[in-house]
Specification:
The complex is a heterodimer of chains A (279) and B (261). Chain A has 10 helices and no strands. With 279 residues, chain A is mainly α. Chain A has a single domain (53-265), classed as MetI-like (MetI-like fold, Orthogonal Bundle), CATH 1.10.3720.10. Chain A is flat. Chain B has a domain at 2-81 and 147-241: P-loop containing nucleotide triphosphate hydrolases (Rossmann fold, 3-Layer(aba) Sandwich). Chain B contains 8 helices and 10 strands. Chain B has helices spanning 41-49, 88-92, 101-114, 130-142, 160-177, 188-194, 225-242, 250-257; strands at residues 2-10, 16-25, 30-35, 56-61, 64-65, 73-76, 148-152, 180-185, 197-202, 207-213. The two termini of chain B are 32 Å apart. Classes of the chains: A mainly alpha (279), B alpha/beta (261). Bound molecules: adenosine-5'-triphosphate and magnesium ion (MG). The site of magnesium ion has 3 residues of chain B, from helix 1.
Amino acid sequence: MTLDTTTLNAAAQAAPAATRTQWRVLKPLLGMLLPLGIALAWELAVYRGWSNGRLVPPPSRVLATIMDLARSGELTRHVVTTLTRVGAGFGLGVVAGTMFGAICGYWDVARRLFDPTVQALRAIPSIAWVPLFILWLGIFETSKITLIAVGVFFPVYLGVMGAILSVDRKIVEVGRTFRLSGAAMIRRILLPAVLPAYVVSLRVGLGLGWMFVVAAEFMGASEGLGYLLIDGQQLGKPAQIVAAIVIFAVLGKTTDWLIELATAPFLRWQDGFRAGGAA
Amino acid sequence: MLLLDRVDKTYPNGVRALERFSADIPQGEIVAIIGGSGCGKSTLLRAVAGLDRASAGLVSLDGATIEAPHAKIGIIFQEPRLLPWLSVADNIGFGLGDLPKDVRRERVATALTRVGLADKAKAWPRELSGGQAQRVAIARALVPQPEVLLLDEPFSALDAFTRADLQDHLLDLWADTRPTLLLVTHDVDEAVVLADRVLVMRPRPGRLFDDITINLTRPRDRASPLFESFKRRVLTALDRSLDLSVPDGAGKSAAGDAMWW
Ligand SMILES: Nc1ncnc2c1ncn2[C@@H]1O[C@H](COP(=O)(O)OP(=O)(O)OP(=O)(O)O)[C@@H](O)[C@H]1O
Ligand SMILES: [Mg+2]
């Protein structure tokens, strides 16, 4: 009798454990279900002749286009060009945004002096700068990178300043009671305290960087993924447009993931609602 | 010797939080400060910690005026205030930045064992219970071996059982190096268990009302009649401090009258 209950218990415990490990493997795949399902359905629709797929090319045709581009070496050229622009603009925007944000967050006088102007500039849709940038800086790389940097600057600036302003006074007091110098206070208290918000602002900034690279490449470029989009429109090649969009999605997601991956070791302490759980 | 000489504190909004507060506290003494809410206990402690400046008067430790946080004065707040991005061990070692690494590691390890958290060295602060976190805060404040340790209602957020446990723990740790303890509390029991001397304050503006010496030997038995009578004395002083009809300076004489055992 007693023997029976123990075996039963063991079985009851083993069953959910097995489903739990299965679940852990399946969970990331869950997110793929919707896009794959739609792609498959569309492929089938075109295959069966329910639609000719001229305006909305089926996945197979998009894939073929990407393959063609890759084989001719054009894909690499466009991707590298766009990545370089985003990288340069993002880098400049992050450096400027971090510096200004830190100064304005840390130093009251600077905030009173600069912040109203920066906020006013922020209210201007960044695309509105395009004509001026072209006049000032020409239609080549400089104006494109500047536009991207401007787009990246604002979220990073706001993120850094806001994060510094909202550092808990109680924690700063801990630093004061241990008589940290100004530099040590920044390194040991302020930096770690603002890091989570900073990472978020970097990711928002990167997203805007990808947005603005398209705008920048629309304003006249002979290479880059944005050029592929325009070219596809002008020559009536929807497959090329969708191919460029897909590559944007892949690159955007990958770079975002890289930021997440690079900063994760520094943020393990966070007490978020997912702490130690999924992800 | 910690010296408070006619310390005044008026906040920028005009609230007079402290008025001519004076006390001499010999090295190694445990002093409890008790009083109604808003009578300036935290203000006083922050002035001694050098976190806020007094508007007038003087705080000095061994002759040196305290105007900013001092190496020999540690403080434990009502909340643990651990740094969430540091492990428990690194939190405890936070104030030992200028010591060589191996000395630091050894001191932290000793402190961890001393507060009974040796197995939590690598844990994050978020993984601790409230009582464990406050023990880490105590260790962090004690590990630089301060001469004066200030405690602002350090156990008030804990349940009665954990509180009693930590009080004993604190006394244990105190016995190692015997720093001066200045402890703000709402809890008469806590004051009488821990203190050599209880300072009773009265509010608006915050001033000293009574100074009661607790000459009980340690360890103290919370159930003994003598303990009870000291408790009653502190309670009476506390009641009188809040009674507006009792004039200042009546505290002392009242305490004298109450020595009826
Ligand atoms: N930063 C501040 N600015 C203005 N007034 C303050 C400030 N901090 C405290 N006060 C006022 O000073 C008085 C004393 O406050 P304090 O915090 O020292 O009281 P307390 O004795 O610690 O009270 P409690 O037991 O509730 O913690 C109160 O009337 C309070 O309103
Ligand atoms: Mg208080």
